[in-house]
Amino acid sequence: MNRLSAETEIWVELKTQNRQAAEVLADELTRTKSKDRVVIMSRSREIMAFCCEKGLSCAWRVERDLSEPIETLSVPAGAALVLDSALLDEQIVIALHDKGVTVFGAVSQRQKEAQRLTECGVDGMIGNVQVIG
């Protein structure tokens, strides 16, 4: 296969907090007509919000050392939230879903961890896990 199928979605972690770099990426995805197949993930809320404003699919990667409760996070409209699996339980997922937030769990290679997140109701998982169901 020399082309990606139309169903392929690519997740890109943007590690820079440089807004100009994010703008270059947004412009390139728009120019190549591929912004509907790419999800930009950033640990920076500001960069993630900027990418959402540019019409990109975005996910905010939240770290373990939060200073506020997860349920009260202000997630920009249209953005997903990617949380370490240790931060997630069913009540948190329900609270975030009630606010209209799509929730992804970041998992390691443990099958039990993936199964627990599935039972919590996450929308998807990011990691190197094979889920058999």
Question: What does this 3D model show about the protein?
Answer:
The chain is an alpha/beta fold. It is 31% helix and 23% strand. The chain has helices at residues 19-31, 45-53, 90-98, 111-120; strands at residues 10-13, 38-42, 57-62, 79-84, 102-107, 124-127. Strand 1, helix 1 (19-31) and strand 2 (38-42) form a beta-alpha-beta unit. It is globular. The chain starts with 9 loop residues before the first strand and ends in a 6-residue tail after the last strand.
The radius of gyration computed from the alpha-carbon positions, rounded to a whole number of angstroms, is 15 Å
Q: What is the overall number of helices?
A: 4
Class per helix and strand makeup:
alpha/beta
**What is the typical, i.e. mean, pLDDT?**
81
The beta-strand count equals: 6
Strand order of the largest sheet: 1-2-3-4-5-6
Ends distance: 27 Å
N to C succession of SSEs? EHEHEEHEHE
Overall geometry comes to globular
Largest sheet composition: 6 strands, parallel
Low-confidence stretches: 129-133
Report the β-strand fraction as a percent range. Answer: 15-25%
| Helical residue percent band | 25-40%
